[in-house]
């Protein structure tokens, strides 16, 4: 399993436009094969800092997502307009946090 977690940093003036674009991509992303979890939330919209958390079945699923018809144009539009401070982890031994 692949886990991505971290922040996206944007110009605060782009927050509304980015929010609309990411919401359009999020619903289709959650339906993609291999997507186990996908969530984004503004931690501080006034500062342009968004938290992102994703879980993917495997690297193949994540790669397919990044190359998907909806994802690629989003990344092309926003790639140079945001700082990506997201790390990727290989995860194993998943269990409830109460265990």
UniProtKB/TrEMBL annotation:
PROSITE patterns: ABM. Keywords: Monooxygenase, Oxidoreductase. It is an enzyme of class 1 (oxidoreductase). Residues 2-97 form the ABM domain. Its EC number is 1.-.-.-. InterPro entries: ABM_dom (IPR007138), AI-2_Isomerase_LsrG (IPR050744), Dimeric_a/b-barrel (IPR011008). GO terms for molecular function: monooxygenase activity. It comes from the Bacteria. This is Quinol monooxygenase.
């Amino acid at each position: 399993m692949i886990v991505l977690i971290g922040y996206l940093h944007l110009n605060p003036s782009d927050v509304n436009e980015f929010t609309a674009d990411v919401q359009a991509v999020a619903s289709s992303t959650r339906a993609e094969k291999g997507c186990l979890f996908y969530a984004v939330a503004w931690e501080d919209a006034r500062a342009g800092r968004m938290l992102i958390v994703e879980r993917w079945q495997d690297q193949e699923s994540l790669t397919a997502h990044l190359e998907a018809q909806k994802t690629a144009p989003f990344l092309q539009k926003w790639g140079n307009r945001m700082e990506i401070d997201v790390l990727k982890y290989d995860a194993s031994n998943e269990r409830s946090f109460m265990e």
